[in-house]
Every structure is written in C-alpha cells, then in structure tokens.
Amino acid sequence: MDIASSSPFNGSGSLRIAIQKSGRLSEGSLALLRQIGLEFETYRDRLFTRCRNMPVDILFLRDDDIPEYVRDGVADLGIVGSNVLDESSSPVNRLQLLDFGYCSLSIAIPDQSPITTVQDLEGRRIATSYPATLARFLKDQGISAESVLLKGSVEIAPALKIADAVCDLVSTGSTLRTNRLKILTTLAKCQAVLIGRGEPDPKKEDLVRKLLLRARSVQEARRYKYIMFNAPESALESIKKLAPGSRSPTVMPLAEPGFIAVHSMVLEEAFWDVVEQIRACGGSSILVTPVEKFVR
Ligand code: ATP
Ligand code: ZN
C-alpha cells in the first residue's frame, strides 16, 4: 500500500514517525512515544494515527519497510531493530539506541551437528532471513557457504534438511532449544534504534531536535535511580563522594539535630554497592524511586 499518497496528512507538514504495526517492537515503541509526551489513540487496523497535542503522525508499518520509508522521506523518524538496519541498504541516520528489543543475530547448528567451529561452515548451507549480514560475516571469516533465504520459520530448516545451520535472531534461546539447535557464534547484538532521514526536512528540524532531546532524557533517566535517606551530619563528606548526583546531592536538615536527609541520583548499575556504603556511613530509611525523565 502506498502510504505516501493514501495519507490524508500527506503534505500537512506534520512530522511522521514510523513504528512496527504489530510485533516485538510495537509495545516498546508506543511506550517511548508516550513517554516523550505524545498523546494519541491507537486503533487496530489503522495505518496511522494523529497526535492530539503535537503536529506528529504515527505510521504503523512492517518493520522491514521502515528504513525505506525513512530514506524516501515518507517518514521523518522511525523505530526499528538494528538487525533490520544492518541488513538494509537504505542510508538513514541512527539517532539513538533505545534499550529495548534486545536480541542477537546468531548462527545455530543442530545439537548433534558435526560442525564445531565457524570454519566448519565452509561449503555448508545456512538458512537465514539476513543474507546480506550473513554474507558480510562469512566474507570476513574467509568462508564460502551457501545461504538459503527463508522469510520465516528459519529454525526448522535443519530438521527439513534444507540447511546445515541457521542464522537467525535469538533472545532467550527457547526457540532454539525447542528445535534442538545450539548457538555456534553470534554475529551482532541487536536492539531498537531511533532513525532519521539522511537529509532531514528543514521545516521539521526543530521538532525533530525537540523530540530527540526528549527521547534522550527518557533513555538517560532509565540509567538512574532517585535515592532519599537519612544520615548523621558527620557523614556528609563521605556521602557527597558516594552519591554526587548530577552536581551534588540535595541536603536538608532533619528536625532531630545532627541528622540530615539526602536526595541524590545513583546509577542503576552501581546502585547496590552505593546503598551498602551509605548504610556503612550510618545512612538509614533509604527510599528509592525510578527516574522518569532526566534532562541534563
Ligand atoms: P513484521 O510483521 O513487522 O515484519 P517480524 O515478524 O519481522 O514483523 P518481530 O518478530 O515482531 O518481526 O520482530 C521485530 C524485531 O524485534 C526484530 O527485527 C528484532 O529487532 C526484535 N527482536 C527482539 N527479540 C527478538 C526475537 N527473539 N526474535 C525476533 N526478533 C526479535
Ligand atoms: Zn519483519
């Protein structure tokens, strides 16, 4: 379907954001668009929806088509897996990694396969929906193998004897286990990416910049926790080092003399270490909340 000519918003000057219509990236994409402040309804079977509070249209598409739509300027922004971008030849700008849709593109072999190393793939047949990415990998490894192009159900190819290995997306590995396959090697770690046009529309640049700042603030916020606790005033210097926040912690006197309440942001990855050290400094009543947005 030609969305460019069928959209009543075509030529309206609205910014268009393309996301996956239905699939593994849909929920995360919708959640991100709402977190950056877009208000809209989603209707089943609709190709697009218009935001209530901003001149933005959201297009619902097959994920594989999103890079082309962005390249052609039908959409100004898009959300798609990095695996699709690596496979696509459309030049688009990767604006922001989005921290969802995690998976990896891996080569897997049957549990009982005689193949034990990547070099053993020489002369074998590998079923995949990612022929370009696979070809690049094989070339880098100096291996010549035949790729068998399948659009879906790649994992059953070895059982059907149409391939000796598969090159497919894996997240938990349960599909592989069900099909008695195991990973031989991983070609790429993948996640959802916000993409934009190589040559942005100058009339929409300001809005793109605004939305990108918001998307980055949401991403940044996810890396932190907001922490509040009580501590003896004498521990303040140690606490400043432990939980410096973005500039320095907020410190308020408690009604009880000699005690303070401290508010700060702590990186999620260091969180438990920091909490233990705060406790060791006499910190107590530690409250922790997620950070929704963080604008630097
Ligand atoms: P469409 O109908 O839009 O073409 P699809 O079947 O190609 O859908 P999905 O299976 O919904 O796509 O996957 C969409 C994206 O989700 C993938 O391209 C990948 O980036 C990501 N993803 C995350 N985990 C997995 C997984 N276990 N298997 C497949 N894709 C995954
Ligand atoms: Zn797809």
Main CATH class of the largest domain: Alpha Beta
Q: Reading side by side through the largest sheet, how are the strands ordered?
A: 2-3-1-4-11-5
Mean pLDDT: 93
**Given the helix and strand composition, which structural class is it?**
alpha/beta
CATH homologous superfamily descriptor of the largest domain: Periplasmic binding protein-like II
CATH architecture of the largest domain: 3-Layer(aba) Sandwich
For this structure, the CATH topology of the largest domain is D-Maltodextrin-Binding Protein, domain 2
Number of helices: 9
> pLDDT below 50 for ≥5 consecutive residues: which ranges?
1-9
Biggest sheet statistics: 6 strands, mixed
Question: Can you tell me about this structure?
Answer:
The chain is 26% helix and 31% strand. With 296 residues, it is of the alpha/beta class. It folds into 3 domains: 15-100 and 192-221, 3-Layer(aba) Sandwich (D-Maltodextrin-Binding Protein, domain 2), CATH 3.40.190; 103-190, D-Maltodextrin-Binding Protein, domain 2, CATH 3.40.190.10; 224-290, Alpha-Beta Plaits (2-Layer Sandwich), CATH 3.30.70.120. It has a 6-stranded mixed β-sheet with strand order 2-3-1-4-11-5. It is flat, with a radius of gyration of 25 Å. Zinc ion (ZN) binds at residues 62-64.
Task: Summarize the entry for a quick read.
It contains nine helices and 15 strands.
Question: Keyphrases for this structure?
Answer:
single chain; binds adenosine-5'-triphosphate; 3 domains; Alpha-Beta Plaits; alpha/beta; D-Maltodextrin-Binding Protein, domain 2; binds zinc ion; disordered N terminus; six-stranded mixed β-sheet; five-stranded mixed β-sheet
